[in-house]
Amino acid sequence: MIMKGLKLLALLYILFLIVSCQKSVEVKEILPVDKTVNETQEINKSIVEEKPQANESAEALANETAETQTEETQNESEEELPPPKTELYLVHDKEVYLSKRYAFINVSIRNAEDIRAYQFQLNYDPSILSVASYSETDFMKQKEGMQTLRIVKQTNNSYLVAVSATEGGAYGNGVLGFFTVTFNSKGNSSLILNNTDLVNSKIENVRHIARNSSITVK
After folding, report:
1. 210, 120 in Cβ contact below 8 A?
2. How far apart are the C-alpha atoms of 159 and 176, rounded to whole Å?
3. For residues 189 and 130, what is the distance between their CA atoms, to the nearest angstrom?
4. Alpha carbon of 174 to those of 35, 170, 200: distances in Å?
5. DSSP three-state, residue 52
6. For residue 129, what are the contacts with CB-CB under 8 A and spacing of at least 6?
7. What is the pLDDT of residues 8-22, one digit of tens each?
8. How far apart are CA 193 and CA 88, in angstroms?
9. What's the CA gap between 105 and 94, in Å, rounded?
């Protein structure tokens, strides 16, 4: 009986050693897994921290692309619109003497194409000169029997003119009309064409250039 008891104790001790070894092996095998998990977590954390930088880079690239496209669109628009061919300009003596009773300032047009109506406002220095009147020419009456409607409005330092033909449109180069001016004192006055409008027979605005001038009274 004693021998059987010793054998049983020996067997139990061997089993205990085996179980202990297995646990040791399991712990050794688990440790690398825990280490892998930690490394994975660190990698994920690094990725998360780098994401905003990636987003910022992507956003900056998108903004740069959008700006480039906008600039290209603007450049294309500018390239699509050539300078206007039609011009409004003033023709007159650049220098006059105060003793001269009056002078004329022509309002001329160059490269007119189907111009049915026009409007402009002449601004000047009222201490230097005064506008007595505005007279039309026959430029807007290129068709036989054509008539025009005219509106004028004079203020202290400007003279507004609006003329419209009853039909059709005018072409070419010529003088739309002229101002008769008198002089009040010596000096220099700018002659500014403001609020200029040209309209064709389709009731469309015509692109144009308005050129200003000046006059000196001696």
Report:
1. yes
2. 15
3. 11
4. 93, 10, 17
5. helix
6. 181, 182, 183, 184, 189, 215, 217
7. 555 555 555 554 545
8. 9
9. 10
Name the residue among 162, 136, 139 with its Cα closest to residue 150. Answer: 162
Query: φ and ψ at 110, to 5 degrees?
Result: -125, 140
Strand 213-217 with 187-200, pairing = antiparallel
Structure tokens at 205: 């605005």
Structure tokens at 183: 């002089």
Q: Return the structure tokens found at 174.
A: 């010529």
Question: Token pair for residue 16?
Answer: 């205990």
Residue type, 36: T
Note the pLDDT tens digit of each residue in 140-185.
988 777 788 888 999 889 999 999 998 889 999 999 999 999 999 9
Q: What is the pLDDT of residue 160?
A: 94
CA distances from 213 to 69, 101, 191, 193 (A): 40, 21, 5, 9
> How far apart, in whole angstroms, are the C-alpha atoms of residue 41 and residue 47?
10
Helical segments of 81-98, H only: none
Gap between the Cα atoms of 81 and 78, Å rounded: 5
Continuous H helices in the chain: 2-80
Only one residue has tokens 């007159």, namely 92
